[in-house]
What we know:
It is globular and about 55 Å long. α5 (145-152) crosses α6. The protein has one domain (5-186): Alpha-Beta Complex (2-enoyl-CoA Hydratase, Chain A, domain 1), CATH 3.90.226. The chain has helices at residues 29-43, 67-72, 76-95, 111-118, 145-152, 154-162, 170-175, 186-200, 205-215, 222-236, 240-255, and strands at residues 5-11, 14-20, 50-55, 99-104, 108-109, 121-125, 130-131, 181-183. It is 50% helix and 15% strand. It is α/β, with parallel strands linked by helices. The chain has a six-stranded mixed beta sheet with strand order 1-2-3-4-6-8, with helices on both faces.
Amino acid sequence: MSDGYVKHEVKEGIATVTFHHPKSNSLPGHVLRGMAKAIGDCGSDPAVRVIILRSDGDKAFCAGASFDELLAIDDGDKGMEFFTGFALVINAIRKAPVFVLGRIHSHCVGGGVGLACAVDIAYAHEGASARLSELAIGIGPFVVGPAVERKVGPGTFGLLSATPALRRSAQWCEQRGLYAEVLPTLEALDARIDAHAKELATYSPEAMADLKKVMWRGTEDWDTLLTERAAISGRLVLSEFTSNAIAKFRAEAAKR
């Protein structure tokens, strides 16, 4: 539990997949693979009509890749293996024959922005800012990039990518389509997601599965594309720039 967990439950056709890591819901490889498996298992369960993706805790929704794990990578193959975890989660969401709703209760950083964009519909708390931070540590949002660009368009994706130090407000994200709706309280956020999930659970599974395929048209090459992108990140993470940048971020965080 101290190194994070993934759990899921199914109730009345609604599957809830929950992830957590004590360091602001950062994502080590085993949590990424656990998320991908849980989403895949829920998607293949005929009793499931909709999936909710959420995280535990009162800090960030997701702080992106685990710095500890990034620093432990010492060759390109290990780097590619780690970043492939993000690809597995995004592709699990893409392939699930049901809609995936995201509960974005707080900040999204780096890969967390990718998760918020990968879900079919993201509902967010008004404090859920977003920052696509990868360029600041010498990597770049290569694996999550296709999901972000698909949701917000190439212009906004480019802007987010090129301003890695700038935290964008939830309202800014809503205006650009990253979030479907921003709610003022956590209670309102949960009520909105619960109502939508219960509504979707009453609809035709076959119709929703076909609609999901239509919505994701043009992403059929993502199994290959995201793996290729993982190789780019896996190479860049080995740089001295990245090691120094992560060390600086960790030192600053320790002072807060």
